[in-house]
Amino acid sequence: MAGVEDNYGSESFEMITDEEVAEVQAALEKGDLTEAASTLKKSLESLENAQLDIAITGESGSGKSTFVNAIRGMEDEVDGAAKTGVVETTMLATPYQYHNHSNVTIWDLPGIGTPMFKADTYLETVNFSRYDFFILIASERFKENHIQLALEIQRMGKKFYFVRSKVDSDLYASQKRRKTTYNEERILKEIRDNCIDCLKEGGIASPKVFLLSCCELGLYDFQLMQDTLERELPSHKRHAFLLSLPNISVAVLQKKKEALKQQIWKLATISSAVAVIPIPGLSVVCDVTILIKAMRGYLRDFGLDEESLRRLAARVEKPEEELRAVIKSPLVVKEITREIVYKLMSKAAGASLMVVEYALSTIPIFGSVAAGGLSFATTYYMLQGFLKEIAEDAERVLTKALESTV
């Protein structure tokens, strides 16, 4: 069984949290697999329905609307993008949702550099309590307006982060002026240190500053910012944030894969719970329903659904067919229907038996799942395989999208 363990072993099952194990174990000890499945179903629904509201603010011209578009993987000129310009274009708090993740909303707030701005009334005006955290953007050094607002946010008990935008423009200008002494790493350190010193002088104890270019979101500190937000958000909101991120790097794709992999055992257990109910055909119907929903979700989360591929092709100015050409999974170019899933289930039966043997002999909490073992194994095996295929395809598409035409 070494091969089975290599592909379906402890890496996945170790992602079960202690709290979830305790709840499921308690239900199984009472012989109630349905209760165990219900606990897991609630856990999944909590992740799927988690609402995340992110507030973006800064002075006029700092690039906050461009950042709103970039973090959503959109160009400034497409339908649904935040309006951008050289003057303040945002007069009211304006919500922008991800086209595939409507539970995550980016709020473009009015600029803070206007004569009417007052930190103590601004937060009330934009409905402060609505947001999970704030991102304060500056295209130059952080000014008194930023500091006043940050202190007010801090006083009211919310998280905030500083983004120094347009770093690519600073580097370009420096390279022009310092042709022989130009050093990108040193210049980035100078910008970061200057921002931190300025904020500390204003009374911000431990400012978190991220250097970004909204034109090239994957450069500089974007990965650091992403890691920080993931670490500091509650788990259910962290999941929503991660899956909504645009696929701008292999690191983002890998994190999405690991986050989704953690949920597969829950879906498989729900499937096995239905299998023990003595109604002919009910288990198969449930398995198919679970598989269709999960597989369609994977396509969406990795940007391989039709709309996402179309948007990506337009953004990188490449034919959509060129991106599709590197996709190997046949399911990406088809609609995932019940008929297709039924066929895949029949092909997966043999391998599923190996998975259930491994799971039931190695994972104590699944000892009572024997009656629904095949249903558990089929769902688990198919989702593991499909997730792996889709993650690899997403990486190939990303590589092709970033490939230079020169």
- The average pLDDT value, as a whole number, equals 76
Major sheet details: 6 strands, mixed
Q: Describe the global form.
A: globular
Given helix and strand content, the structural type is alpha/beta
The CATH homologous superfamily of the largest domain corresponds to P-loop containing nucleotide triphosphate hydrolases
Q: What kind of oligomer do you see?
A: single chain
What is the element string, with H for helices and E for strands?
HHHHEHEEHEHEHHEHHHHHHHH
Q: What strand order characterises the main sheet?
A: 2-3-1-4-5-6
Distance linking N and C termini: 49 Å
What top-tier CATH class of the largest domain fits best? Alpha Beta
Q: Specify the helix fraction band.
A: 55-70%
Tell me the number of structural domains: 2
Instruction: Please tally the helical runs, counting DSSP H or I stretches of 4 or more residues.
Output: 17
Note the beta-strand portion.
Answer: 5-15%
What's the CATH topology name of the largest domain?
Rossmann fold
Radius of gyration: 24 Å
Architecture of the largest domain in CATH? 3-Layer(aba) Sandwich
Q: Which stretches of 5+ consecutive residues score pLDDT under 50?
A: 1-16, 276-285, 360-371
* Number of DSSP E strands: 6
